[in-house]
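Ops channel
N.P.: pipeline sanity check, posting one input/output pair.
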């Protein structure tokens, strides 16, 4: 055999081996856009989706719109320019994000929605969200157990631009409305934010010093409320309930400052969305029975809080 042909065969064999040992980005780019990673919930969402995408052989880019539809629109433009194979998106606004999603679709990039739904179906290949109505009912039932069936209370709500805020508030109302002696004496929008929760709680307390409970649409607002109650020397006589299952909230449940939290299975559906995107890119189908998929929430109390070893995951 000539040296040249021997070299050629070796080179060909090396090329075949290189093809099999293809680098991690061989399946292209998956763009993951979350809301705001300063909140542990969205941080976990981005981290879990990224890890799953990398495991499946994709290059990843994770960015955040922080609830701003203009930023989101620019991030979608970047995803299109970067020739993303798929986009995993936690939308900024149920209505306002529709235009950005349509832009991606026009560029033949499939979009997979997580956590906060779009107000239009048939655009995203899948929408994977927590079962907020089920979670709110679960939380409100526990709240009544802890507060009792009479007394004055206040509510902290998420922003009106997020459907989850209304779904949770309605879920609370459905349960608490069954107790005529429970009176809601105040409510404030604190936009999922701890500082706003603290500030709004201070003004709610000034107006209603005799409350027995605070029901909150998320953990960050609840933790802000706890700080305000502590400062006012009222934490002992006021029950606070949260929603999300964030690490700080789980710690507060263990300490007894937060009565409970309702854990959203964000780690579960963030990974699942990436799997469905991968399925779709390979087979043209997500593998799920429907576009909209609901994942049940889990009540976290002192009893099971100790079992949580990683964020938003309760061992089976």
């Amino acid at each position: 055999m000539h040296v040249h042909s021997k070299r050629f065969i070796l080179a060909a064999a090396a090329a075949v081996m290189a093809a099999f040992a293809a680098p991690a980005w061989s399946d292209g780019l998956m763009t993951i856009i979350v809301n705001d990673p300063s909140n542990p919930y969205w941080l976990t969402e981005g981290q879990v989706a990224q890890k799953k995408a990398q495991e499946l052989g994709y290059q990843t880019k994770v960015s955040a719109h922080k609830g701003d539809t203009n930023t989101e629109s620019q991030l979608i433009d970047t995803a299109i320019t970067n020739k993303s194979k798929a986009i995993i998106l936690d939308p900024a606004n149920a209505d306002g994000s529709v235009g950005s999603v349509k832009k991606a679709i026009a560029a033949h990039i499939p979009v997979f929605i997580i956590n906060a739904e779009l107000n239009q179906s048939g655009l995203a290949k899948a929408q994977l969200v927590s079962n907020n109505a089920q979670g709110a009912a679960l939380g409100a039932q526990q709240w009544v157990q802890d507060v009792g069936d009479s007394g004055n209370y206040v509510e902290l709500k998420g922003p009106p631009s997020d459907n989850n805020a209304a779904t949770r508030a309605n879920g609370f109302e459905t349960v608490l409305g069954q107790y005529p002696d429970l009176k809601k004496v105040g409510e404030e929008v604190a936009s999922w934010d701890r500082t706003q929760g603290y500030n709004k709680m201070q003004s709610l307390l000034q107006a209603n010093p005799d409350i027995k409970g605070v029901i909150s649409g998320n953990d960050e607002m609840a933790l802000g409320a706890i700080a305000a109650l502590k400062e006012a020397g009222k934490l002992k006589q006021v029950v606070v309930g949260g929603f999300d299952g964030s690490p700080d909230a789980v710690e507060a449940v263990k300490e007894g400052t937060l009565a409970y939290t309702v854990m959203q299975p964000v780690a579960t559906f963030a990974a699942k969305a990436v799997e469905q995107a991968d399925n779709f890119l390979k087979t043209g189908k997500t593998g799920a029975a429907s576009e909209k998929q609901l994942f049940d929430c889990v009540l976290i109390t002192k009893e099971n809080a100790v079992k949580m070893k990683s964020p938003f995951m309760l061992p089976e």
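N.P.: looks fine end to end. The radius of gyration is 23 Å.
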